[in-house]
Specification:
about 475 residues, alpha/beta, TIM Barrel, eight-stranded parallel barrel, 16 strands, globular, GH_1_N_CS, hydrolase, 6-phospho-beta-glucosidase activity
Length: about 475
Amino acid sequence: MSTYQFPGHFLWGGAIAANQTEGAYLEDGKGLTLVDLLPTGKKRWDVMLGKLDQFTPLEGEFYPSHEAIDFYHRYKEDIALFAEMGFKALRVSIAWARIFPNGDDLVPNEAGLQFYDDLFNELRKHGIEPVVTIAHFDVPVNLIEKYGSWRDRKLVGFFETYAKTILKRYKDKVKYWMTFNEINMLLHLPFVGAGLVFEDGEDQKQTKYQAAHHQLVASSLAVKACHEINPDAKIGCMLAAGMTYSYTCNPNDVMDAMEKDRESFFFIDVQSRGAYPGYAKRFFKENNIAIKMEAEDEALLKTHTVDYIGFSYYASRATSTDPEVLKNQTAGNVFGSIENPYLEKSEWGWTIDPKGFRITANQLYDRYQKPLFVVENGLGAIDEVNAEGEVSDDYRIEYLRKHIDAMGEAIEDGVEIIGYTSWGPIDIVSASTGEMKKRYGYIYVDKDNEGNGSLKRLKKKSFHWYKQAIESNGQNLD
């Protein structure tokens, strides 16, 4: 038995995203969105970095988002399984292009609005709280092609219209909102994070940070609208988090680790504290970055800050200033990292570091003094269905057990945590690689990397384990 106690109202559940689950990519009036242009294979990485040939899907390429796991048609079946596990919350996102197919439409698409009405009704029928991300790696393609996406200030207005539309429509059904998913990913995968496509010779740093400013202003406008439309609702931001360790106690390494953490904290500093930090201003000056602001921007950012900090945690990172040490690189949710000799790695090279989870939670709470919400955490692994039709994913159970235990210790440390929605409670398309074989779920989906399969759902061993963990409010993790 644990020494810590999770709060009685703790929101246990799972997290998915529209672009990785729904499919039905042009159904019921939906427009193309950026993920619909991400193929599998070698070309995927180029597109994610902002190198795009055209604004329509290419012949001969496979686009996993077009069908995904067909959650659009199967959500009732899937929600029933989540309810069976005892979910208190399900984090989802709304597909912007389902509501405004072109992004700049004057009138929203009623069929899209109705789908999310039906989805939230189904969740509430099962006593599951919707936790809704307004933009989860999602920009309508028309806004990319016509305006250059978030590099153009006009996106702020389009986003505000979209946000107000859904905040009003679902004000009686949704209590928890988030503005942008992993907003710091804009710097690492600019097309995925902000729909940015670069021209040859373009100053990419300038463009990224100008786009970031527009997203930060848009986030503040969404916070303002949420508080006005439903004062009882809570709206947060969302960070792709993970402590950066200094490889040695060399002050140069320590400084480098601090700077890498600040690269991400920058976004949350603005959204939570309401102003551009001094270190960012210095960075802009030294890199000849000139942020174009409108007169009201600083006051807007200062006045309309978020209610809580949502974050994902999969792995910690490590850094060094020694060129020889830097040769030993490993993967980690897009963020580069040198290998940490004290930690094991997943099949995709991500370090497995439960104590880093506790450290990260403490670090965020110390910094912002606002409630935290763990909205992504999990293990991507290759699962095999055995001859008896079962998936014995003990490795996933072990990963989650240690991370939930670390989260409990963080709560014991005094960190206020609203809830825990583990990533991909049902197998979904991987955001980074587009694969299906990189599975996170408690529920197996019969589909392979090429799109073949029946889409049949199958409970894994971890399904029953997580049900037990929720029933015991985190006390029984055996």
